[in-house]
Every structure is written in structure tokens, then in C-alpha cells.
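About this split. The held-out portion is used to measure sequence recovery: a designer receives only the C-alpha cells and must propose an amino acid at every position. Recovery is the fraction of positions where the proposal matches the reference. Here is one held-out target exactly as it appears in the evaluation file.
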């Protein structure tokens, strides 16, 4: 293993590609900031029980993929594998739900960790931007979140994604369905692992990606036929609101998702250009989660969109985001005196908000102009002894190659005028 190799299943974000990641995060966050969601940041690790109780002991995320460890002081912690449980924990700790202003709407952006088998689109360290609306049961809130995710993807220029939608029922109707499904699954010929899953979390079996299993699932009881009237009416309204907003979706009765806390509305955004790791984002309602982690009843809904996979989706659709050039002006000093004068000008330009960079390391003209080119700057400021003797610097248009002298005290105005 090379000393410079990042750990398995991880990768570094480096310029210029890292700019796309930042822009994707921004694009996903923008509709949330514009819709009453406030920014929240929680620690990268939590007490391990938060996830085992919240996400669910029977899920792959907790049973196989969690980075759990014991501190020197004997506390059992885990790197966060997802965001919802932490955000809800933080909201409860800060008593946000008691401020008489429900729902509490929060958004977040950060790193998450799962010990998964790495492949394209599936990493051990990945990034999500997420949103949670805590403490209200209202189909319009479920619809809002789906509409905002759709808006984020569309703003990025994505079009080859689909929204899968399902209802998982509530604590009234889901147990009845669970029993019926278990009865059906127990009659199938399944491997040992899957049989165990039938006993702990039968709904997850519906999600099995293997064709042999899917074949056996034909004729399995569907949750749709077991939904209670309240769940049916709720789901119908979510669907109507989405349709009214012009957001297309597909009903997917088998959409269960890998976390135990979901109730009623669940959804996933899948992108058709991504191969096997096609889910770019997902979420749903989690009315029981607060109680599962020891809080009061707080019906809530949320989603998390994967930044890594959204970037892959952009690549798959051949979309290049229009990112503003990072540097507008690049200063090239020729000689010691010019170095001091131009460095002063660079500072002045930067303080005035002009993105400016400087040729460091005492390069000659040729090497420095190469750096100016690489920086993507629109203009270069070049000065040598003779320029300074005349009280000017040369302002060079990097595209046309045209160059004209500008008086030292007029540089900021000249640059501003040309960049405008
Ligand atoms: P989940 O929390 O499993 O519902 O995941 C939500 C989104 O996070 C997924 O749709 C992916 O875009 C992203 N995601 C989850 N796990 C990974 C992973 N191991 N690597 C990259 N992205 C992931």
C-alpha cells in the first residue's frame, strides 16, 4: 500500500472537480433555504444506541455497516451512518419542538460513514444534503419535500431521474400486513440469511435485488391492499399535491428502503444512468422515530440526497455546471520592486472583492504567464521595472492577448470596469 493512498472506499475531492461538489451541495440546499429550512450541524459521531434504536438493529446499516468503537473512557460511539436520527436527537435536546412553532424545518450537509463493499457510487465515506420537517403530520409537508428535491435536481439540469413513491402504512395497518407477508414468505424456499430477515424485518425482503428472490415474490401480499383508511387518504393527498405541482412520480409498492423508522410516505429518487447504485436520494415519513429514541410523539418527514451520486448523475447526463472562474485577475511581477507593488495591488483588489491571484516563487515571465493561463483568469497584471518607473502596470486581456498600460492608482477601477 502506498503511503499516499486514501483508505479503501474513500476518495479525495480535489480541484477542479471539487468545485462541482460544492456547487451540487449549494444547488440542493438552495430550495430548502428558500422554503423555511434552517441550517443544522451535528457531530460526526453519536452514542451508538441512537442508531441501533433509531435506524434499527435489524438493518444492514446498523448490523453490518456501522463504524462503531469504544472510546478510551469506555463510551460506545459510532460514526454517523445517516443524518435523520442525529438531527432529531439534536432537535429534542434543544427543545426545538417545544417552541410552539411546528414543524421545525431543518437542513444539513455533511459526511456519512458506512462500512460497505465499495464500488462505483458506493463508498465508505460519502456526502449527503438532507432535510427534516419535524413535528407535523400534513401531506403537504411530504409533498413539499419531494417537490424541493425535484426542484434541486432540475436546477442542476438533471432530467433522467424518476421518483418512486410508496406508503408503508402506520402502526395500525402495518403490523397486520407484516403478519400476512411473513406468512407468505415462510412458505418460500429462501437461503438462511433471507429466512432470518423474514423473521426480523420481512418488508426488507421485498427490496431484495436478486432476480431469483424477486421471481418468488410474485403474488406476495401488497401493503397497498392493507392500508387503513387514514393512511390511504393521506397517501392519496400526497399524490394529488405532487400531480398538481407537475411533479411526476411512479407508484412502487415494493419500495421499502433500508431504514426501520419509515411510516406512511416513502420515496426514492433513482437515476437511470447510474447502473446498480441508482438511488440518488430518498426519504420518507418517520412518525415513530422520536418515540423510538425516547422522545415524545413527533410525526416527521425528511430526505437525504447523495452528493457523490448526484455528481455521477451529472456525468451520466453529460452536464457540465457553469461554474464561475475562480480567478479573475492574475498578477505577474517581474523583479523585486514589482513584486512588492503588485502584491499590494493584489491585496487591494481582493479587499474590493475581485478574485485575484499572484505568481509566487520568483518565476520568470514565461512560467508566470503559464500560471496565469492555468488559473483561468480573464486578465493578467504584468509589471517590470520600466512600467513602475512610468507609474503603470500592463493590463493584459488573456483571451485577445491585448495589453494596455494602466496607472497604478487606476487599476481597481479599470479592472472593475472590464469585468462588469
Ligand atoms: P439512505 O440514507 O440509505 O436512504 O441514502 C440516501 C442517499 O445517500 C442515497 O440515495 C445515496 O445517494 C446516498 N448514499 C447512501 N449510501 C451511500 C454510499 N455508501 N456511497 C455513496 N452514496 C451513498
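Reference sequence for scoring:
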Amino acid at each position: 500500500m502506498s503511503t499516499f493512498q486514501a483508505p479503501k472506499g474513500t476518495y479525495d475531492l480535489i480541484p477542479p472537480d471539487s468545485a462541482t461538489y460544492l456547487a451540487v451541495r449549494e444547488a440542493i440546499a438552495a430550495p430548502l433555504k428558500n422554503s423555511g429550512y434552517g441550517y443544522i450541524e451535528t457531530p460526526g459521531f453519536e452514542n451508538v444506541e441512537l442508531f441501533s434504536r433509531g435506524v434499527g438493529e435489524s438493518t444492514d446499516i446498523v448490523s453490518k455497516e456501522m463504524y462503531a468503537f469504544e472510546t478510551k473512557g469506555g463510551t460506545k460511539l459510532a460514526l454517523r451512518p445517516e443524518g435523520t436520527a442525529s438531527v432529531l436527537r439534536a432537535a429534542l435536546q434543544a427543545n426545538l419542538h417545544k417552541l410552539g412553532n411546528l414543524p421545525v424545518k431543518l437542513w444539513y450537509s455533511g459526511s456519512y460513514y458506512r462500512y460497505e463493499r465499495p464500488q462505483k457510487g458506493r463508498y465508505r465515506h460519502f456526502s449527503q444534503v438532507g432535510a427534516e420537517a419535524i413535528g407535523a403530520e400534513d401531506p403537504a409537508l411530504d409533498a413539499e419535500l419531494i417537490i424541493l428535491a425535484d426542484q434541486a435536481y432540475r436546477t442542476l439540469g438533471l432530467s433522467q431521474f424518476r421518483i418512486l413513491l410508496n406508503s408503508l402504512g402506520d402502526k395500525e395497518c402495518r403490523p397486520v400486513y407484516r403478519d400476512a407477508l411473513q406468512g407468505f414468505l415462510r412458505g418460500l424456499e429462501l437461503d438462511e440469511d433471507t429466512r432470518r430477515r423474514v423473521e426480523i424485518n420481512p418488508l426488507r425482503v421485498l427490496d431484495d435485488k436478486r432476480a431469483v428472490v424477486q421471481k418468488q415474490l410474485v403474488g406476495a401480499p401488497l401493503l397497498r391492499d392493507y392500508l387503513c383508511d387514514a393512511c390511504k387518504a393521506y397517501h392519496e393527498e400526497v399524490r394529488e399535491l405532487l400531480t398538481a405541482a407537475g411533479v411526476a412520480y411512479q407508484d412502487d409498492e415494493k419500495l421499502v428502503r433500508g431504514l426501520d423508522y419509515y411510516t406512511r410516505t416513502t420515496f426514492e429518487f433513482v437515476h437511470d444512468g447510474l447502473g446498480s447504485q441508482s438511488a440518488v436520494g430518498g426519504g420518507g415519513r418517520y412518525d415513530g422515530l422520536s418515540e423510538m429514541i425516547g422522545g415524545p410523539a413527533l410525526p416527521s418527514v425528511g430526505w437525504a440526497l447523495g452528493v457523490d451520486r448526484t455528481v455521477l448523475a451529472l456525468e451520466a447526463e453529460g452536464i457540465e455546471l457553469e461554474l464561475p472562474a475562480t480567478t479573475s485577475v492574475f498578477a505577474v511581477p517581474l523583479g523585486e520592486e514589482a513584486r512588492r507593488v503588485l502584491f499590494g495591488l493584489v491585496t487591494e483588489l481582493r479587499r474590493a472583492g475581485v478574485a485575484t491571484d499572484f505568481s509566487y516563487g520568483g518565476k520568470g515571465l514565461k512560467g508566470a504567464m503559464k500560471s496565469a493561463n492555468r488559473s483561468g483568469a480573464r486578465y493578467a497584471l504584468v509589471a517590470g521595472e520600466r512600467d513602475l518607473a512610468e507609474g503603470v502596470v500592463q493590463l493584459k486581456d488573456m483571451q485577445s492577448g491585448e495589453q494596455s498600460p494602466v496607472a497604478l492608482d487606476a487599476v481597481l477601477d479599470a479592472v472593475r470596469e472590464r469585468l462588469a
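Annotator remark: Residues 17-173+227-316 form a domain with the BirA Bifunctional Protein; domain 2 fold (CATH 3.30.930.10).
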